[in-house]
Design goal:
The protein is an alpha/beta fold. It folds into two domains: 204 residues, 3-Layer(aba) Sandwich (Rossmann fold), CATH 3.40.50; 107 residues, DNA polymerase, domain 1. 42% of the residues lie in helices and 14% in strands. The protein contains 14 helices and seven strands. Strands 3-2-1-4-5-7-6 form a seven-stranded mixed sheet, with helices on both faces. The structure holds S-adenosyl-L-homocysteine. S-adenosyl-L-homocysteine binds next to helix 3 and strand 2.
Length: 318
């Protein structure tokens, strides 16, 4: 059953924050297998949910799971960055600028459905084609990126998006290996990484390939840029009093969310040396999570995917 494939992370907190939203429609920009969506729909009978995912396989499972809620649910395949257009498309007669929503949820990252399927190529633990696309119908697979990216770009991505200590060594090894032939499988890439790093790197608690795989996944799916665009898109669509909730799984993502909320919550963004305020900035958000909310030890024990999760939320005030 789909509900066992992927457990929704920080579900109670997500529902608690979004229950503070005015009555209306909530956009779940990463509906995935519908775990959070189901909990939200169960918590309030007046809630309508507009769910988006760029993974059609996940969406098909969400559709099954949420069928019992009938017309309260609309699901669509697409990128959450385009949520305004997608919302308008499914609601003929309205334009993107007309329909406002009472809440927006983004639970970014990969689903267990994606991670556990060797054919999707997300995991080095199982051999499969080196793909890693959340939407296999769009963009280029990871193997094509690895084939074409200059060595400096590979090193930069591994360092920036994977915080990989041996980024340059691994990038060099990848470029040497691809000169001998294309790198097309997850195990081939893992092997290259294992041979490139020093032996003592194997003593740490994670596999030496973890950070490289994470970095390539983030780059292939443009995850950080999408998050920035998605926050803007979601915020624009919220009505006054609407609630934005984001669950992220990576320190770089959490930083983007934190900075976004801080900027919106600031009363003035003038340089500190100006004698008086000239920016005319208004407070746009009330931050609902002074510190990010993290899972309890019990949730982490039950669901390893929850380990790095951080949740932040805000209420739009204008
Ligand atoms: N909240 C869901 C799980 C979400 S997992 C649940 O409880 O079941 C994250 C999902 O986000 C994945 O299915 C992934 O395909 C989707 N996703 C990631 N980036 C996306 C984007 N830019 N647009 C739409 N969906 C995205």
């Amino acid at each position: 059953m789909s509900s066992e494939i992927h457990r929704p992370v920080l579900c109670r907190e997500v529902v608690r924050l979004l229950s503070m939203a005015p009555t209306g429609t909530i956009i779940d920009g990463t509906v995935g297998l519908g775990g959070h969506a189901e909990a939200l729909l169960e918590a309030s009978e007046s809630l309508h949910l507009f769910g988006i995912d760029r993974d059609e396989a996940a969406l098909a499972l969400a559709e099954e799971r949420l069928a019992r809620f009938g017309e309260r649910v609309r699901l669509v395949h697409g990128d959450y960055c385009d949520m305004a257009g997608l919302l308008a498309l499914t609601n003929p007669g309205s334009t993107a600028s007309e329909e406002r929503v009472s809440g927006v949820l983004l639970d970014v990252g990969v689903s267990s459905l994606q991670l556990d399927d060797p054919e999707r190529g997300f995991s080095f633990r199982k051999d499969g084609p080196l793909d890693m696309r959340m939407d296999p119908s769009a963009g280029r697979p990871a193997s094509a990126w690895i084939e074409a990216a200059p060595e400096t770009e590979i090193a930069e991505v591994l360092k920036r998006d994977g915080e990989e200590r041996y980024a340059r060594r691994i990038a060099r090894a990848i470029v040497r290996a691809r000169e001998r032939g294309p790198i097309e499988t997850t195990s081939a890439l893992r092997e290259i990484i294992h041979r490139a790093v020093p032996r003592d790197y194997f003593a740490q608690s994670i596999d030496p390939a973890t950070r490289t795989f994470q970095a390539i996944r983030i780059a292939v799916n443009r995850e950080l840029d999408n998050l920035r665009d998605g926050l803007d898109a979601g915020f624009d669509l919220l009505s006054a009093g609407g609630i934005l909730v984001v669950v992220s799984f990576h320190s770089l993502e959490d930083r983007i969310v934190k900075q976004f909320l801080r900027e919106k919550a600031a009363a003035c963004i003038c340089p500190p040396d100006l004698p008086e305020c000239v920016c005319d900035k208004k407070i746009e958000v009330e931050i609902l999570t002074r510190r990010p909310i993290t899972p309890t030890p019990e949730e982490m024990a039950e669901n390893p995917r929850a380990r790095s999760a951080k949740l932040r939320g805000g209420r739009k005030v204008i």
